[in-house]
Amino acid sequence: MKAKLSFKQLHALEAVARHGSFTQAAREIGVSQPTVSNLIYALEKQYKCRLLDRTGSSITPTPQLAEIRGHIKALISLNDVIDLHLSAEQDLLSGQFHVAYTSSALAMPVLAEFVQAYPALDVSATAMHSLDLQPKLLSGGFDVGFMTTARLPRDLAGFAIADAQIGLWLPKEHPQARHASLSWNVVATLPLIQRQPQSGARNLFETAAQLAQVPLQTRLSLDTVDAVMTLVRQGVGAGVGFAAECPNARDLVFVPIHDPVLAAKHYLVCPKPMRETAMVARFFDTAEANKAETHIASERPRATTG
């Protein structure tokens, strides 16, 4: 009779994949390092497959593990839910919770309320580009993510927090800053400062520009919103982005581009298997309660075109 898959094996496997270390995984789950090694060795032998790539001092998930890692993490989270209910401590959530975000202005209000509501949780948040965020979520690297895209990815569960319209950030004194919106003909004349190619804003912006057959003058590609805004302030060029990225800037003006193709949304997302787990469900509830506050009023479309 074939041996059954054990929860201990999956727990050990997920911890090693996340830490990239047998020693750290053993420390986290409270067993010895040889025990973790034996659990994973037995699992790989049982299914005649390799789940971890061991190259020198580096330990990473194989493609086969990456494909199911989100399901393993969901199973572990559901086990925690059962344990909490049986212990009659449903309101004392504890453990680790990992959040990825592309816009701090949207993520931080939700994070602040969530951390205050569940102080026993060890919450970490990581900034990254939208195009990098989705594979990280699906591989189990994060529990939830804030991302900006034209539509909700098919492999993720989630909902739209706010509308997002792409435009240009300009100094207040810039000649184009007084316009309600900009045409592509005007955009084509301006030196641009953009995020890296993995940025969701850049991807949507350049796709729309190609459809409109507009040549762009991208002067610089930078990694962070803060870096873009700093050079906009110095007069280097116009910054491409969303209104939500710098909502409190008093010396800059956001001017949307007049093109319906540029419409997108800010989403809160998670892997589908994780949606009903306790911590993710409560995080979604917190975001839903904050939805009205996180909707950025300055992103509402304006009437005229410059």
Give the mean pLDDT.
85
Hey, roughly how much beta strand do the residues contain?
15-25%
Total helical elements: 11
Radius of gyration: 23 Å
Largest sheet: 9 strands, mixed
CATH class of the domain at 162-264: Alpha Beta
* SSE sequence, one letter per element: HHHEEHEHEHEEHEHEHEEEHH
Low-confidence blocks of residues: 88-92, 294-306
List the helices and strands and how they pair.
Blueprint: H1 7-19, H2 22-29, H3 33-47, E1 52-55, E2 58-61, H4 63-86, E3 95-101, H5 104-117, E4 121-127, H6 130-138, E5 144-149, E6 156-171, H7 184-187, E7 191-195, H8 200-211, E8 217-222, H9 225-233, E9 238-242, E10 252-256, E11 263-271, H10 278-289, H11 291-294
Parallel strand pairs: 3-4, 3-5, 7-8, 7-9
Antiparallel strand pairs: 1-2, 5-11, 6-9, 6-10, 6-11
Question: How do you describe this structure in short?
Answer:
The protein has 306 residues and is of the alpha/beta class.
Structural features, described:
The chain has 306 residues and is of the alpha/beta class. Among the domains are: 1-67, Arc Repressor Mutant, subunit A, CATH 1.10.10.10; 162-264, D-Maltodextrin-Binding Protein, domain 2 (3-Layer(aba) Sandwich), CATH 3.40.190.290. It is 41% helix and 24% strand. The chain has helices spanning 7-19, 22-29, 33-47, 63-86, 104-117, 130-138, 184-187, 200-211, 225-233, 278-289, 291-294, and strands spanning 52-55, 58-61, 95-101, 121-127, 144-149, 156-171, 191-195, 217-222, 238-242, 252-256, 263-271. The strands form 2 sheets. Strands 3, 4, 5, 6, 7, 8, 9, 10 and 11 form a 9-stranded mixed β-sheet that branches. The longest helix is centred in the first third of the chain and has 24 residues, at 63-86. The protein is elongated, with a radius of gyration of 23 Å.
